[in-house]
Amino acid sequence: MKDQFSGIEAMVNKSKIGVPYSWWAGDTASKFLISLRDDKKIIGMKCSQCSKVYIPPRKVCPTCFIDNTEWVEVSDEGTVISFTVARRQLASIPKKVPVIYAIIMLDGADTGILHFIDNIQPDAVKIGMRVKAVFADERKGRIRDIAYFKPL
Amino acid sequence: MAKRVAIVGTGQTFHKSHRPDVNGQELINEAVRRALQDADLTMNDIDAIVIGNMDHFEGINYVDCWSVDGSGGVMKPILKITTGGTTGCTIAIGGYHIVASGYFDKVLVIGWEKNSESDTSGAITTAFDPVWDRLVFAGAISGLAVEAQAYMARYGATDKDGARVSVRDRKHALNNPHAQLRKEVNLEEVLASPMLADPIHLLDVCPRTDGACAVIMASEDYAEKISSTPDWILATANRHPYAYLGDADYGRLTSMRISSTELFKKGGIKEPRKEIDVIELYQPYSFAGLIWIEDMGIIGPGEGPQYVGDGNTDMGGELPINPSGGVISCNPIGATGLIRCAEAALQIMGKADQRQVPDAKIAVSTGFGGCWWTDMILHGKKKPNN
Amino acid sequence: MERAAIIGIGSTKIEGNKVRETFADMAWEATNKALADAGMTIDDIDNVVTTSNDFWDGRTISCMAVGDASGAADKNVSCVEGDGTYGAFYGLTRCLSGSYGTTLVTAHTKGSQSISSLITNAAFDPIYSRELGMDMITACALQANAYMHRTGTTPEQLALVSVKNHGNAMKNPLAHLPMNISVNDVLSSEMIADPLHKLDCSPVSDGCCAMIIANESRAAKYKQKPVWIKGVSFYADSFLLGDRDLSRARSLTAAAKKAYSMAGISDPKKEIDVAEIYDAFTYQELMWLEEMGLCGDSEAGKLLARGQFNVDGALPVNASGGLLSGHPVIAAGLIRMAEIVKQLRGDAGAYQVPKAKTGLAHGVNGLCGQSHCVWILDNEK
């Protein structure tokens, strides 16, 4: 079956699909982002049943399946749970490599937040080290209103 | 031994054009909690989740993984089924099979879409083959217009006949607090509304909606303990025959004809027009309400306009269609087929409130989408024989 | 649950760029191979489940591209979006629901047709994480570090997985990357994201796999001796990476426990003869082995170094070469199942594990192994 196509050029159709999006953050995430933008404060939600503090905040506790009602401010300092240093300039990375990604457990929170670590030699990053949020000068109500976490 | 399966609870959001107050999984959560409440169950009672939507309408990859907080899926088995517009129906069919297999006893089926966030035309265009069809595809509505034109040419129907279907569904929606569009329209208004693609006017087609729907299915070992009036799934059937737009038979929905023949045979329905009490038809535009019920075998070819025009499919008529207001009144795509299933279940369970068809014993719900595809479910009040 | 079996398998070669094949071409090839393998015609197939992913295929309703080529034009058909092991699960239940006796399951991806980093970045939450620009590789690198930190597993032990699997692939004619490499080759390959070097990562390949599942009443009616499905289970963990203990895979532990229980297995280390598990990255083979109880906690790296998981070891893992040697994303888990079927039939040719009777196949969905699906197959009922 393949022989009938021998000698025929394999043609490739290069194209792009354009499917623009705007995601509603929803009231819960909006409050969190506005707090970053306007107050440089990191706030989470606490479940009234299991007392877990969710960062970033959730409207509903995924375990107890009830609405979270209590907002809690957590510290802008925390502990590095894990990290990686991106060395190859992968297509999704918005900054020039090396870029340090980490999960940080902020003091007062029960879940970790994903973000950048900067102001440190990549080889010096350690699991368990303490870091502090550095806010961007220009903030728009986005997760990158926190510019990165720096070593304490 | 295969199990008999029934729907024991349903939940829907109050569908709206925009829901800026919630993200997708928070939207899902509303429908899920309503369904649990309807069945008087908790998330702990649920053995597995079947979920579906159209990825490019959400801009999120592995969206079944993303939505676990809202769906209640943390540390549960989650299966994503997605087949385009037919998704809402195929996830219900999926829930049915996984319960009937005996593997799970109580399954939560979730369908949803946040259409306000996406470029619907941009997304739907990617469904079609990039080399052959995509560059000439002019959006879903144009495709449907081709069908309407072919049907009108063959059988002499007019755009007034199409408009009559819109009038019916928009009137029915007044009885449905969940529907997005709850304002009546008359024939003149439909025909005067902007022409989108000849002969389809704006008021002939569905809106874009943010909404979610959840349905709980249970095996025969649990169904009657959970609900005193379960909705038994009597049969399912579907056909997705085409991949290219040029292959379809415009003017007749072949996949509907073949699926319904199989569905009625499996379900022991010999005279659909007599035996079916109510249909929730996935009808994305008005003319489908004439054409596809002929393909379903309710009436003969070309008889749609007269049958609908005489009021037979209105509430109080011989065979009410879309008591919920149908897709023309509300269309959160990934949920839409499941809403048809949930609405049919509400009819059988006697829980349809203002939109109840009295003494509904047999119902049909359908899904449409893709390249002229059809999915169908037969619902019944009486527990099927083994 | 009633009994069902796998009675046919077929797969395209796994390649870096199948420039001459469309999705439909691959599905056609795999389906015909599975039918020939089973000694069936398409008329013997009662219904079809395809498996694909809209983002990877650049097509919403990605199942539309392969439905007719999978023989589904005039059959009941559906599509699972997720790894092939999940499609196979749905296909299995459709054989047991009283509606159908045989199901054809297909799964495909053409990794060559897209930019994988952008595709997997799209799995991240659009509000809280996506613009940070992580993808599957950086996320898994984060997990690898957490796992190594907790268990003391070393970069050399990770590299050994790559050496073993690429080496195993030398005997697998369908593999994409058969290679004779050393630990040093792995450790000196380009560091993509600490601790994952290029050779710690699987490629993104093109390929399609098809499988025919039948219930007990139909299983013995065709050419092959059936390979019986003794247990299957799947679970999904939390989504946000910060919600999970990334050094653990509790959804895998739960899935494995249930699958073993269904299969009547009380000591999986002894009772599983051969395993094909989802090694998208080297650390994953070690981590998944521990989390599914096939070796002791934190032991996998050491046992690997002693040869425990080699083809001639006590528990051969990924004798086919695994994902490291060929990774057509969505098809990956279904191919793991097909490879176990080959082993249990005695058809694995140059990489046959002698006397393999009970096998484990494993698939993963989502970031950092959020959801896992485990299958236990056996050549006896």
What would your notes on this structure say?
The complex is a heterotrimer of chains A (152), B (386) and C (381). Chain A has 152 residues and is mostly beta strands. Chain A has one helix at 26-39, and strands spanning 42-46, 53-54, 70-74, 77-86, 99-106, 113-117, 130-135, 146-151. Chain A has one helix and eight strands. Chain A has a five-stranded antiparallel sheet with strand order 6-5-4-7-8, with no helix packed on it. In chain A, strands 2-1-3 form a three-stranded antiparallel sheet, with helices on one face. In chain A, a hairpin with a 6-residue loop joins strand 1 (42-46) and strand 2. Chain B is an alpha/beta fold. A nine-stranded mixed sheet of chain B has the order 3-2-4-7-1-8-11-10-9. A two-stranded antiparallel ribbon of chain B has the order 5-6. Chain B starts with a strand and ends in a 6-residue tail after the last strand. Chain C is globular, with a radius of gyration of 19 Å. Chain C is built from 13 helices and eleven strands. Chain C has helices at 23-38, 54-57, 84-96, 116-121, 136-151, 155-169, 183-187, 216-219, 250-262, 268-271, 282-291, 300-305, 332-345; strands at 4-11, 47-51, 76-80, 102-110, 191-193, 196-197, 206-215, 227-236, 274-276, 358-365, 371-378. The model of chain C has no long low-confidence stretch (mean pLDDT 97). Classes of the chains: A mainly beta (152), B alpha/beta (386), C alpha/beta (381). Chains in contact: A-B, A-C, B-C. Chain A binds chain B through residues 13, 15, 17-29, 58-60, 62-63, 65, and chain B through 18-23, 26, 29, 33, 42-43, 56, 59, 68-70, 72, 74, 114, 116-119, 122-123, 125-126, 130-131.
Brief descriptors of the model:
heterotrimer; B: 386 residues; alpha/beta; nine-stranded mixed beta sheet; two-stranded antiparallel ribbon; 14 helices; 34% helix; C: 381 residues; two-stranded antiparallel sheet; 13 helices; 11 strands; 33% helix
Which class best fits the helix and strand makeup of chain C?
Answer: alpha/beta
Chain oligomer state: heterotrimer
User: What's the number of helices of chain A?
Assistant: 1
Euclidean distance between termini CA atoms of chain C: 13 Å
What can be said about this structure in brief?
With 152 residues, chain A is mainly beta. Chain A has one helix at residues 26-39; strands at 42-46, 53-54, 70-74, 77-86, 99-106, 113-117, 130-135, 146-151. In chain A, 38% of the residues are buried.
